[in-house]
């Protein structure tokens, strides 16, 4: 296999694996912070039980997020030496600050995990606030590397030499702020919806255990509200991200929308498959003028199609499908949450039907699929460049990537994923919810 393909496959699969844990590592601490605050405001110890149980799950996920992130860091150096030479001189700043964010998270996480019971409610909230802050800051800082690759800035590139470097301009490159917000909001949404999924599943299973059902119902409603708010935020900000594609990465937008001819009144094509042979989108639903409107707030907006660019510089056309998956999932989740609250309102005390709970079990996995599709879209849509219009992928990759390594790492990730599931299931089986709820009752803390 070609060395560039092996490097891309190895790095891509490592990132795809790491991103699951990194995303939950941002979303779950935020949820723990919310329940700690609710516990303080309402005095309801169920929120304390949630904080305790979610923290255990989070600790296991963090145990994989840290080494898998380290693997990604090492692979960046080993698989992409050309790229590291370029970024080392330009975009090192956010990586350096990220080390501090990681320290912040790790130190306060240790305090929270080992001493939460001995802390006053206010100190507990402050502690978990810093855990959530450190985790979010890490994500927002690391995103700078990807945005720099999409919209490089802060240096001059002359005869293969990098000169006049301005690290802050490289950090705050044109797509940085919007992308950082997109990554953060989508992670908070996914963390919340992961909890919704578990709560919905448990509600289906605990019909004969009313006390446990009450607990799960609180977690369900809370996470659904937070997930719903974040999904609206993700979509609104995603619209801004798409407008920035129009401005700074027009080939990516053209491939995302399967637009070949440049035009005003450009159509938006929902679904379907962009066919590289016929240069059309097959089986899609076309909405006339909508792409121009979305990209530039006017039907007269001129949107550049792929024919304006040399074919060897086109991103792969499957990015149309990836973009549709991400946006489709985001839109579906917003409507689903809205629908759930309408059903609650209409059916009042009868609550939600079981088929809806079954559907809601899917919101966590669907959000994660959206995250994966978003990242693959952002990175594949930049092809054939590692750094947009500056460095091509083949100039960044090592010449000595090895197929054996790819097989070994894929097996390792599969094994790790299985172990994580087994550890989580075993832990929560050994520490049933009923025990935690009984402890609350014994201590006379129940409201
Ligand atoms: C609902 C409407 C949405 C729109 C219009 C939208 C738009 C975009 C755009 C234009 C990009 C590419 C940015 C770039 O390459 O420079 C992007 C990337 C991304 N999206 Fe979305 N998105 C939406 C929903 C979602 C949802 C629901 C998720 C997660 C569940 C998500 C997760 C991501 C991620 C992780 C990236 C890669 C990071 C980045 O480049 O910002 N997006 N999105």
From TrEMBL:
Q: Which UniProt keywords apply?
A: Cell membrane, Electron transport, Heme, Iron, Membrane, Metal-binding, Oxidoreductase, Transmembrane, Transmembrane helix, Transport
Does the keyword section mention Acetylation? no
User: EC number(s) of the enzyme?
Assistant: 1.10.3.-
Q: Which domain of life is it from?
A: Bacteria
Query: So where does this one cross the membrane?
Result: 15-38, 58-79, 99-116, 128-149, 180-201, 213-236, 322-346, 355-377, 404-428
Pfam families per the UniProt record, alphabetical: Cyt_bd_oxida_I
Which InterPro entries is this protein grouped with?
Cyt-d_ubiquinol_oxidase_su_1 (IPR002585)
Q: How does it sit in the membrane?
A: Multi-pass membrane protein
Localization: Cell membrane
Q: Which GO terms describe its molecular function?
A: oxidoreductase activity
The record's comment on protein family reads: Belongs to the cytochrome ubiquinol oxidase subunit 1 family.
According to UniProt, the name of this protein is Cytochrome d ubiquinol oxidase subunit I
